[in-house]
Specification:
The protein has 395 residues and is mainly α. The protein is 55% helix and 4% strand. It is globular. The structure holds s-citryldethia Coenzyme A.
Length: 395
C-alpha cells in the first residue's frame, strides 16, 4: 500500500513503498520486517537486527558468521580520519564530529562514490556490501573517538569481540587490558540499539532517502541522516529530556512546569510523536531496561522526576486530548546518564543504531526499479506577476 499523504501544515509530501518497518501509530505497534519490536528486543542482538533490516531476513548461521566477521574487521578507521577528528576544538559537540567524520569518509572511498566511480557502482552486491560492512563497523569507532576527544583522552583502537561490547572497550576510561564492561550494561545498550535501529520515514531517514535519490555517495547520505538526527526535536530529544528534568529539579516543581507546557512556554521533551498517538512501544521497553541498568549503576534520581512527570501528564486532559505519550527518548537519556555518558553524547548513541535502518532504506531505494529523484512540491503563498519598478535610485 503506497502511503501518499499531503498536509500543507507539514508539507509531508512523501510517498514511498517500503517493506522495512511497519508502524501502527494508533495501536502502538512497531515491527521490523514483520517481527515485533518486543520480541526482537527480548531475543535478538543489534547486529542480527541490522542484518534483518538490511537483507530482509534473519541470517542463517553461515550468513551470520560472515556478516559478523566482515563488520567486525571493518571497525578500524584511517589515521588521516583520526588526525582530522583530533583537529576539532576540545569542546566540539560529538554529533558535529560524527557528521563531519562520516562525510569525510566519502573522500577516502572514491570507488564508492557514484560521482567518481560511475552511476551504477552500487549495483555489484560485493561493492554495496563492502560499504555496509565499513559503515556499520566504523560508526562505533568514530563515536568512541568523539567521546574520547571530549574527555581529552587518546582514542582507543577497536578490539575483536561483540559489536556493542567492542564499543565499550573503545570508550573505556581506564584503557587497561583488564577492563571488562559489565554484561548487563552491554546487553542494555544492545537492546537500546535494537529499539533505535529503524523507524520508517522519520525525518532523518527521509533525509537519507532524499540524498540517495540523487545518487549521492552512501557516506554523505549517512552524514545527512546524522545531521537531521542531530536536531533537538528528533535525535537530540534524549539530550533535551535530561536538560528538562534537570531544570525541573524536584517533583514539587512539576505542576508549575506542566502549566508552562500548557501555556506553550515549554515543550514536554520526550513526549509526543507524529505517528504514535498512543504509547510508543519502544518507551515501554526502555523503561524496563532502565530498571536493569539501575541495578548495576545505582538509581538515577532524575528517573523519579521522569516517572512522576509521566504519571501526571498521562492523567492530564490537556495531554490526553493532544494524544501526547512518552516516546523512545523520554527514558533513554536517564539510562545513558546512569551509565555515565555525557548528555551531548546521547544523540550519538541514537545515531549508531539508526545507521542500520538508513542502510536498509538506501539499499531498498537502490533496488527500486521505479526509483526517481525525490522532488516534493510546495504550496506557493507569495506574490504573482508583479511589474518591475525601480524603488531606489542606485548609483
Ligand atoms: C523521535 O518520526 C519518528 O519516527 C521519530 C523517532 C524515530 O525513531 O526516528 O521516533 C524519534 O524523533 C521521537 C520524538 C523526539 N522529540 C521529542 O520528544 C521532542 C518533543 N516532541 C515534540 O516536539 C513533538 O511531539 C514531535 C516533534 C515529536 C512531533 O511533532 P508533531 O507531530 O509535529 O506534533 P505537533 O507539533 O503537530 O503537535 C500537535 C499538538 C501541538 O499543539 P497545538 O498546536 O495543537 O495546540 O501537540 C503539541 C503541539 O504544540 N505538542 C506538544 C508536544 N508535542 C506536541 N506540546 C508539548 N510538548 C510536546 N512534546
Amino acid at each position: 500500500e503506497v502511503t501518499r499523504y499531503f498536509d500543507p501544515g507539514y508539507m509531508n509530501t512523501v510517498n514511498c513503498r517500503s517493506s522495512i518497518a511497519f508502524i501502527d501509530g494508533e495501536k502502538g505497534i512497531l515491527e521490523y520486517r514483520g517481527y515485533s519490536i518486543e520480541e526482537l528486543a527480548e531475543k535478538s542482538t543489534f547486529l542480527e537486527v541490522a542484518f534483518l533490516l538490511i537483507y530482509g531476513e534473519l541470517p542463517t548461521i553461515q550468513q551470520w558468521k560472515k556478516f559478523n566477521k566482515k563488520v567486525m574487521t571493518h571497525t578500524f578507521h584511517h589515521n588521516e580520519l583520526r588526525n582530522m577528528m583530533k583537529s576539532f576544538r576540545y569542546d566540539a559537540h560529538p554529533m558535529g564530529m560524527f557528521v563531519s567524520a562520516m562525510s569525510a569518509l566519502s573522500t577516502f572511498h572514491p570507488e564508492a562514490n557514484p560521482a567518481l566511480a560511475g552511476q551504477n557502482c552500487y549495483d555489484d552486491p560485493i561493492a554495496r556490501n563492502k560499504q555496509i560492512y565499513r559503515i556499520l563497523g566504523t560508526a562505533p569507532t568514530i563515536a568512541a573517538s568523539s567521546y574520547r576527544h571530549r574527555i581529552g583522552r587518546e582514542y582507543n583502537s577497536p578490539r575483536y569481540g561483540g559489536y556493542t561490547e567492542n564499543f565499550f572497550y573503545m570508550l573505556d576510561n581506564l584503557n587497561d587490558s583488564d577492563f571488562k564492561p559489565h554484561p548487563v550494561l552491554v546487553r542494555a545498550l544492545d537492546v537500546l540499539f535494537i529499539l533505535h535501529a529503524e523507524h520508517e520515514l522519520n525525518c532523518s531517514t527521509s533525509a537519507v532517502r532524499h540524498l540517495a535519490s540523487a545518487n549521492t555517495d552512501i557516506y554523505t547520505c549517512i552524514a545527512g541522516g546524522a545531521a537531521a538526527l542531530y536536531g533537538p526535536l528528533h535525535g537530540g530529544a534524549n539530550e533535551a529530556v535530561l536538560k528538562m528534568l534537570t531544570k525541573i529539579g524536584t517533583k514539587d516543581n512539576i505542576p508549575a512546569f506542566i502549566e508552562k507546557v500548557k501555556n506553550k512556554e515549554e515543550k514536554l521533551m520526550g513526549f509526543g510523536h507524529r505517528v504514535y498517538k498512543n504509547y510508543d512501544p519502544r518507551a515501554k521497553i526502555v523503561r524496563k531496561v532502565a530498571e536493569e541498568v539501575f541495578e548495576v549503576c545505582g538509581k538515577e534520581t532524575l528517573i523519579d522526576i521522569a516517572m512522576e512527570l509521566e504519571t501526571i501528564a498521562l492523567n492530564d486532559p490537556y495531554f490526553i486530548e493532544k494524544k501526547l505519550y512518552p516516546n523512545v527518548d523520554f527514558y533513554s537519556g536517564v539510562i545513558y546518564k546512569a551509565m555515565g555518558f555525557p548528555p551531548d553524547f546521547y544523540p550519538v548513541l541514537f545515531t549508531i543504531p539508526r545507521i542500520a535502518g538508513w542502510l536498509a532504506h538506501w539499499s531498498e531505494f537502490l533496488d527500486d526499479k521505479d526509483k526517481k529523484i525525490v522532488r516534493p512540491r510546495q504550496i506557493y503563498t507569495g506574490h504573482r506577476k508583479r511589474g518591475y519598478e525601480l524603488k531606489v535610485e542606485r548609483d
